[in-house]
Amino acid sequence: MPTVLPASRPIPGTGPIDSSPISLTPAPGDDLDPIWKAVVPETRARGNDIHLPISLAYAERLCDCFPEADRLLVRVAIQLHDTGWGRVDEDRILSEGFAGDWRKAAIRFEHERQGCVIAREVLPPLGYADDFVAEVCAIIDGHDTRQEARSLEDALVRDADRLWRFDHAGIALAAGWFRMDPATYTDRLAAEIIPELLTAPAITMATAALDRSRDLLKTAVLR
Fold this sequence. Notes:
Layout: H1 33-38, H2 40-43, H3 48-65, H4 71-80, H5 90-97, H6 106-122, H7 130-140, H8 152-163, H9 168-177, H10 182-193, H11 200-216
């Protein structure tokens, strides 16, 4: 069940914060493998086969920081949140979803709607209850376009969705989507994305990953 969102910002965690490279802690276990297998085609759009597993690994870390959160809800929602990109016109993804006032682009609302369709298709046959599926869809619907989080689980999914961008793999993909070089893109992460993070542990993880990525990619020189 969703957990009431704390009023304080950034939201403090009570568990340990792991800010080491995300490649050191891939998402554990195989309980979500049936879901992965059900959405393989949707992972082939817009780099989802890179984005979604890394975001899930970050979501696992955030759940360690917030043991009161519904861990399964967070994990399944982050796993499916961007699968809707696989059901929209791929030619429009970069031209509309990552240009201009991209946060309000119609295709972003469409990928959220399609993500909910996919969740309703794949989760019930795998044994997930209708109430749980509805909670997953409530997070997916608006994860890019709605400004506020509605629960702690919603906040953790939003932060995990952003945290992957700070890893060098995320920078390599997303900088190209926004037609930026890595130095410019990492500047944007610092100026725009870190302030959007809702939890204190996510800010710690993002800052550590950004520092590592900037050093690795020599962004102080290659700009």
